[in-house]
Amino acid sequence: MRGALSWPFLRLYILTLLYFSANSILNVIIPLKGAELGATNTTIGVVMGAYLFTTMFFRPWAGHIIQKHGPIKVLRTILIFNGAALILYTFTELEGFIVARILQGMCTAFFSMALQLGIIDALPDKDRSQGISLYSLCAYLPGIFGPLLALGIWQAGDSSYFTVAMVTIAILTGVVGYSASIDKKVAEPAPGQTEQGATMLGSVSQLVKNPYLCKCSVLMLAASIIFGAVTTFIPLYAVQINYGNAGIFLMLQAGTVVLSRFVLRTKIPSDGKWRSSFMMGIMLILAVAALSVSFSSVGGAAFLYVGAILMGIAQALLYPTLTTYLTFVLPKTDRNVLIGLFIAMADLGVSLGGVIMGPVADHFSYSFMYMICAILGVTMIIFAYERSKKSSAGLR
What is this structure's pTM? Predict the structure, then answer.
């Protein structure tokens, strides 16, 4: 096989699957552990949000470092710190989880940027969207089995199972990561490229100044707030619904993401053109998903699971579509850093989904909180609209 499905890239996808397996377990264990210890939704949201808030902070810097030193060197270094973070979870309580989440967030910033930028640089234009989609697919694949495994570990009441899971994932990720490779002829930065790129502080201003980056970042930020609210509070919300099960919800959501990204990977635009109807359709699906989850408190588990499927479809299409679009319209000299800023907005959104929506759930209800998410999704349908126009080739 060639292109995005060749063996070197398949090995990167396997590494991605292993790396994010830990988080699919932690996303269930941490809220349940917090509730057991008497923590409020606000506290649980802060602990969960610390992970991607840290990731957001380090992503632009990660893009700059990777552009300078290449993805493989960075990847092999960061896997050591990731292993330490996973082991830290096994012998600490909620306070220690915050430290582990921060360390893991830093690792994820460098890990995901190294793999995504390596894939973007190593693949030809026609295969770029497929490579990004397959990476994203493998990042979500653990969400199919991880939540059910986490619930099994939790219900067993034996902490040794959790320890074995974290240590095993840390070891396997390190072994596969150190054997991974990316074609150095195309993946290494060109001589002098880092000096030509914008400075880090100057690049942050592009979130406002660059219309393409601004539009994509706002859409990703808003959508990620909804995704974050679901990830953080579904383990606690599902138990309030008749026949509701957080493991089934997260499994359906992740399974839909995986299936949709594989089936629709060739349908994602890979030509640098903005398609308003396509993006508005994605945001409509997301808004209906949040509304369905909200209504499940009255309508029952059927609405909860329909919301999971619709949420998965929106997740499957949104991120690779926006990322692929940006790889065409952003200036090449600064592309790695600017894409890092865009992904940082996704991280910020997921973090805010826990931090902001936690107090809303505390003062009102989970159902009301997800209704707010649905309203946010509707506003993004309008924001996604844009009159048809050609992307500026001068920005490449």
Answer: 0.74
